[in-house]
Amino acid sequence: MRLPRNFFSRDVLEAAPDLLGKILVRRFDNGELLRLTINEVEAYRGEEDLGCHASKGRTKRTDAMYQRGGLLYVYLIYGMYWLLNFTTGQEGAPQAVLIRGSLEIKGPGRIGRALRLDKSFYREDSITSERLWIEKNENLSEKPEIITSPRIGIDYAGEHWAGKHWRFVTQL
């Protein structure tokens, strides 16, 4: 069962940990499905969060973050890795969850490669997409144990924002 809009319409600090254990589904052009169990995410929350791309304000790159929850926010880093984020919260309040890893694939760059992401996914709606969405995990009977830690690779944001325990991980 695909996650509904109201799952993503919540604050990122509620939605992000709730993504752990969910199934990320990618349907390729040939009909093949790739199913990944999400086990690591990071939350990025608003213009005040100096680790968040929206801290620089609304730009062509960050516009998707200002839209309703459930849209894809993809961007290229190091000129070679497309990273996958899902917007959360309400329109006008930029928030997103970065998918950092799954049980099957570690690392956000590797996830992007396995999903064959590109800029065509930018702002795609995961609620109606035929290419990429998230489903409930019917095999998971209880909420997984969650470990929090500081987000990775945002030292530039300063000690306060880099030190926020907005990285959520589970071993399942």
Search tags:
3-methyladenine DNA Glycosylase, Chain A, 8-stranded antiparallel sheet, globular
- Radius of gyration (CA) equals 15 Å
Largest sheet: 8 strands, antiparallel
- The CATH architecture would be Roll
Question: What top-tier CATH class fits best?
Answer: Alpha Beta
What does the overall shape look like? globular
- H and E order: HHEEEEEHEEHE
Task: Produce the secondary structure layout.
Blueprint: H1 5-8, H2 12-18, E1 23-27, E2 33-45, E3 72-77, E4 81-87, E5 95-102, H3 108-115, E6 132-135, E7 147-149, H4 159-162, E8 167-169
Antiparallel strand pairs: 1-2, 1-6, 2-5, 2-8, 3-4, 4-5, 7-8
Write structural notes for this entry.
It is a single chain. Helix content is 13%, strand content 28%. It has a single domain (5-169), classed as 3-methyladenine DNA Glycosylase, Chain A, CATH 3.10.300. The protein is built from four helices and eight strands, in the order ααβββββαββαβ. It is α+β, with helices and mostly antiparallel strands. Strands 1, 2, 3, 4, 5, 6, 7 and 8 form an eight-stranded antiparallel sheet that branches.
